[in-house]
Amino acid sequence: MSKKSSLKSTIAVSLTNYLDAGAIVAGASGLTLWQNYLGLSEVHLGWLNFISANCLGAAIGAIIGGFLADKYGRKFIYTYNLIVYMVGVLLIMCSVNFPMLLTGFLITGISVGIGVPASWTYISESSEINHRGRNICISQMSWGFGPMFILLLGMLFAPGGYLFSWVESIGHTIGGTDLAGHALNVFSSRVVFCSLFVVAFIAWNLQRRLEESGDWKASKEAATAKGEDTGLIHAFKVLFTNKTAIKTVVFLTTIYLTWNLVASVMGFFQPHIYETAGNLSNEYANMLSCVGWAIVVAVTFVLSFFIDRLPHKLFYILGLAAALATWFVIIAGVNGLGSLWAFSILWGINGGLSVQIFYALWGSELFPAKFRAGAQGLMFFIVRGISAVWGLVFTYIYGENGEGFTIAAYCMIALLLISLIVGVIGCPDTRGKSLEQITKERYGDI
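RESULT FIELD:
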């Protein structure tokens, strides 16, 4: 595939990451609005996080989507998956009670999970040897653009925001002129989700036109020629009986899980944290989070020029150092806007050099094509599933008004240290090698 077509397909597929992170943050930016409108408790909020694109919904989708992508091809996912996403978002937009909202979050999350393993796999398989890291960074930039734009919209459409008059007009048109208070305010979140619906529709039209992965076709043809079983059960069997594959799953799951337990909380609860622990308005909280995501995009953009040239371990260490510094700020004490700004900036730097970049890159490099997406789906299932449980636990640690935030910070630091140590020890040397070469070195003639 040429450099031009590789970049074009990367951008099209990367919209999946925009929609992934966008769905998480769209819920986060309007969390207080839905809480006030439906009278939700902190436990209700924990359940929304539990089944959303942040956790269980994505976990369920990933285990399904990863192995479907290996069985029927990457293009199969891109042809149908975003239709499911649009259904989930539409349900959220129309929610008038907690069960509707919960169901919408679940459906959207399942779609996100189905798409993510296929997208990282497709990007690596369609990239030139010296541009795999760059293209994964582009995908990660999309993961940053999603929250940045969603939070910007959330800020503009929030009650008291510059464009809230538009929200009022839409709310009165749909709900009647008597609509007021929390029922009217929540329309700002409905409008934000509507923007995701539009982007999903555009992405679906782009992705369903993509060519099938050449690596997947070659792997499927080779398996057929040998008379090998290409079913899902056989794929699981091969994955779980290969020692190299098992070790790789343990390594990647460990570094991604420990980092994601922190990131999942930040992704869903960050604006809510600013409002409760920092006593900021919904508008200011979204603005501060938006700045953090802008930093993620900027740092990832810079990284894209160097990730295929310099040792991965260097950037891995720098990213986790910024993450650890973020939580040391919290331990020092949230004593004003200065500490909140430092918190947001440091976490933005971590996001730009995040473990997720290396997990996506290594996860698509360190497995053979026959179960590449399936292995990623399995790991994503484990990570997001455990993150779902952690999201519920975190609400109890955090407390109703952020009184347990310092204790939570110590938990975050411990998790990040594990990710740092394991990642540094197990960092693979894959730069400048083709996927075929990496597979040959690790698995032989599998």
